Amino acid sequence: MAKSIFITGGGSGIGRATAILFAGRGWRIGLADIDEGGLAATRALLPSGMAETHVMDVRDRAGWAAALDTFTAPSAGQLDVLFNNAGIATGGPLTATSFDAIDRTIAINLTGVLNGARIGYAYLARTPGACLLNTASASAIYGSAGLATYSATKFAVRGLTEALDAEWARDGIRVRAIVPAFVETPLLDGAIDGSNRTIRETVRAAGLELTSVEAVARAAWAAVHGTRVHTYVGRTAHIMAFAARFAPAMLRKRMRRG
């Protein structure tokens, strides 16, 4: 039987590109998203019979269990990769960010990932060589001014990845994270609280590059099949990782200017 990957946030962006890459290499794909139309659009791009869709909110634990039960039924409950990818982007000064936005960001970007890990464990534990893959961010390398809540959730995802890679090693489950910089997805079209600019406009004004979703999908493949806990994606992520290790004072000064 073909290997299988269950991808949250599969209706667009990184999730869609990853589904296309894995399906093209013979994997069976489970797509989950709150966007039914986006799921249908992704599925239409994949080989016939290679994917199934699940309209699901990562905050809904019962929804997680139902979707994973259905998707893994043909493989006797086994799952090769669970890709905890769903997330939202929020920006702006913390003092200008509503409490509703803070709560929603934490619930989706962190609690949703914890839900996937906690509920997905049973399926991964049945599968030799299984992998939990999480989407972190370059904002988890050094906290980004104007992205405080987002950075906090991605730091948590990074820490969770490291903790579970150690905790689940005895069960034969590898835990990995991709750490991209700014990725060319619709998330960048969101407005920054307290500003009339989008995240995309702010990124471009800062002279930072946008990484393609195809590059991130290739990094996801490498992460699943590699030995590194964190896989950095894009020039900015690599520069930040280097600076955080060897020139933290310089990075701190740059962040204060930003």
3D structure, described in words:
- It is a single chain.
- This protein is of the alpha/beta class.
- It has one domain (4-257): Rossmann fold, CATH 3.40.50.
- It is 47% helix and 14% strand.
- It contains 9 helices and 7 strands; from the N terminus they run βαβαβαβαβαβααβαα.
- It has helices spanning 13-24, 36-44, 61-72, 99-125, 148-167, 199-205, 213-225, 235-246, 248-257; strands at residues 4-8, 28-33, 51-55, 81-84, 131-135, 174-180, 230-233.
- It has a 7-stranded parallel sheet with strand order 3-2-1-4-5-6-7, with helices on both faces.
- α5 (148-167) links the parallel β5 and β6 (174-180).
- α3 runs parallel beside α4 (99-125).
- InterPro entries: KR_dom (IPR057326), NAD(P)-bd_dom_sf (IPR036291), SDR_fam (IPR002347).
- This is Short-chain dehydrogenase.
